[in-house]
């Protein structure tokens, strides 16, 4: 399946060929801290199947909770994360950030990782009050 998308402000655009079963939720500490939320959802793609169409991201390297070095990419103007990838591994698989894809409705997650770090209240979401208002 081909997806396209980009950063929040639209300066970075990209596209990728992905396999819809390869969509996961990660609950590790980094995947909570980096996006500032309870978990991160990623879509996997081979690096050869990914392309930037406009602009390039900022890249920095961080050690993951596992100790492995991970390349993190984001657009510095709006702060949107684009993908992460292992350092020094070939061929590379990119962990494309779910929120960058325009086809999010067609990309339901299939599995969860690092569930021991999951926030206990996630199971309560279906029973939480729904407030409909536009900010």
Distance between the termini: 33 Å
Q: What is the spatial order of strands in the main beta sheet?
A: 6-7-8-9-4-3-10
User: What is the overall number of helices?
Assistant: 1
Instruction: Give the name of the CATH architecture.
Output: Beta Complex
Secondary-structure element series: EEEHEEEEEEE
Q: Unreliable runs, pLDDT <50, ≥5 residues?
A: none
Q: How many structural domains are formed by the residues?
A: 1
Helix content: under 10%
- Output the structural class: mainly beta
Under CATH, the topology is which?
Metal Binding Protein, Guanine Nucleotide Exchange Factor, Chain A
What spatial form do the alpha-carbon principal axes imply?
A: globular
Mean pLDDT: 89
Total E-strand runs:
10
Strand content: 35-45%
User: What is the CATH class?
Assistant: Mainly Beta
How big is the Rg? 15 Å
Largest sheet: 7 strands, mixed
Structure description:
By secondary structure, this protein is mainly beta. The protein has one helix spanning 29-33, and strands spanning 2-6, 13-17, 23-26, 40-46, 50-54, 58-63, 69-74, 81-86, 93-97, 111-113. The protein is globular, with a radius of gyration of 15 Å. A 7-stranded mixed beta sheet has the order 6-7-8-9-4-3-10, with no helix packed on it. Strands 1-2-5 form a 3-stranded antiparallel beta sheet, with no helix packed on it. The chain has one domain (2-127): Metal Binding Protein, Guanine Nucleotide Exchange Factor, Chain A (Beta Complex), CATH 2.170.150. The model has no long low-confidence stretch (mean pLDDT 89). 26% of the residues are buried. Helices cover 4% and strands 39% of the residues.
């Amino acid at each position: 399946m081909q997806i396209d998308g980009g950063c929040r402000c639209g300066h970075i655009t990209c596209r990728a060929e992905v396999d819809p079963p390869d969509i996961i939720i990660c609950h590790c500490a980094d995947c909570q801290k980096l996006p500032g939320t309870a978990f991160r959802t990623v879509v996997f793609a081979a690096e050869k199947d990914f392309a930037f169409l406009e602009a390039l991201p900022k890249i920095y390297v961080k050690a993951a909770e596992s100790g492995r070095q991970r390349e993190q990419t984001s657009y510095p103007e709006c702060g949107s994360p684009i993908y992460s990838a292992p350092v020094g591994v070939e061929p590379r698989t990119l962990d494309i950030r779910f929120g960058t894809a325009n086809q999010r409705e067609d990309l339901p997650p299939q599995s969860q990782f690092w569930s021991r770090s999951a926030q206990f209240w996630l199971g309560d979401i279906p029973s939480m009050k729904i407030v409909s208002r536009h900010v």
